[in-house]
Amino acid sequence: MTPFELAEPTTLREAIGLLDPEDASVRPIAGGTALMLMMKAGVFRPTRLVSLRNVGALGAIGAANGELTIGAMTPLSVIERSAAVRDHAPVVTRTLRTLSNVRVRNVATIGGSLAHADPHMDLPPVLIALGARVSVSGRKGERTIPVEQLFAGYFETVLERDELITSVAIPAQGNLCSVYLKCTTRAVHDWPALGVAVSLDSDGATVRDAAVVVSAATETPRRLPGAERALRAGRAGDALWRQAGEAAAEEGQLISDGQGSAAYKKQLVRVYVARALAAAADRRR
Predict the structure, then answer these.
(1) Looking at residue 190, what is its pLDDT?
(2) Residue 225, domain extent
(3) 196 - beta bridge partners?
(4) Does 15 fall in a domain?
(5) pTM score > 0.90 for this model?
(6) DSSP letters along 17-28, please?
(7) Closest-CA residue to 109 (of 70, 161, 155)
(8) What pLDDT sits at residue 285?
(9) Helices 262-284 and 238-251 meet at what angle, rounded to 10?
(10) Pairing mode of beta strands 133-138, 156-157
């Protein structure tokens, strides 16, 4: 690795001030699990890293007014073990148990993983299905971005270079039942060829509303409105799940990569969307 400056601010304002909106070689670092690999491989050569480790108030988990808030610097393993997260959005807890491995989860943070924008990550599609949003701070002030709108492309977000994610908020889930399934070509914690997250609002007989999100097989995590329309007001059951799976397979803009061809992933989408919906219906029962 080439030499670089490491800044360790203690306040959010100081951290933002150390970032340079004009210089892509100045970057914030949270857990560093992905960034350090990029540096070792020579893909990224920073001139300055701004560590967020000592910035206070970015690592808390709290619930208020039916909403769960998770500080951006909260390690994934802390989220995995949190009773508040398990009670509010149990799909997050289940998802984290097969996200990479425990060594990574002990270091990686929720804010850093979202800002990294790797389309193979497990949490983004889940958070999109849950209707989550991120709070962002920068030189121009604060703003809120739905997680669905955070990703601009392959490893790209809509964040400015001098903006930081400060927290993630998950709204009250009401009657929603949510499930995340992924297909990996090797071990269960490996990079997925496909990730599918669904949230289902049903009275047991009829689907009132649904969110269907795919990732890993696409350049960014993506909601599938065609599949969602196919579900609304439909009679809950295997026939409807298969119909939604077909709609999802037709509308997904899938990519070929080391995990499989686009044609292979199209079949995965068809099967896994139907499976995820069936699993969500079973959890409601």
Answers:
(1) 78
(2) 177-284
(3) 181, 214
(4) no
(5) yes
(6) HH--TT-TTEEE
(7) 70
(8) 75
(9) 150
(10) unpaired
CB contact set of 108 (below 8 Å; sequence gap of 6+) = 30, 31, 33, 34, 75, 76, 100
Tell me, what CATH number does 162's domain have?
3.30.465.10
Q: What pLDDT score does 258 carry?
A: 86
Q: Which two tokens stand for residue 38?
A: 């990029």
The rounded distance, in Å, linking the Cα atoms of 230 and 99 is: 30
For residue 262, the tally of other CB atoms under 10 A from its CB is 14
| The pLDDT value given to residue 85 | 98
Residue 57 confidence (pLDDT) = 80
Which residues in the chain land under pLDDT 50?
none
28 belongs to a structural domain: no
Sign of CA dihedral 191, 192, 198, 204: negative
Paired tokens of 168: 């993630």
List the Cα angle 279/63/181 in 5-degree steps: 20
Structure tokens at 207: 């689907």
Residue where a domain terminates, one of 155, 170, 185: 170
- When divided into structural domains, the chain yields a total of 2
Q: Are residues 207 and 149 in the same domain?
A: no
CA dihedral 79, 28, 17, 137 (to 10 degrees): -40
Identify whether residues 271 and 227 lie together within a single domain: yes
Whether 198 and 248 share a structural domain: yes
Rounded-to-integer distance, Cα 45 and Cα 264, Å: 36
Neighbours of 266 (CB within 10 A): 17
H helix or E strand, kind and range, residue 138: strand 133-138
User: Are 205 and 271 part of one and the same domain?
Assistant: yes
CATH code, 241: 3.30.390.50
pLDDT of residue 72: 98
| Residue 236 sits in the same domain as residue 219 | yes
CA atoms within 13 A on the CB side of 144: 8
22 lies in a domain? no
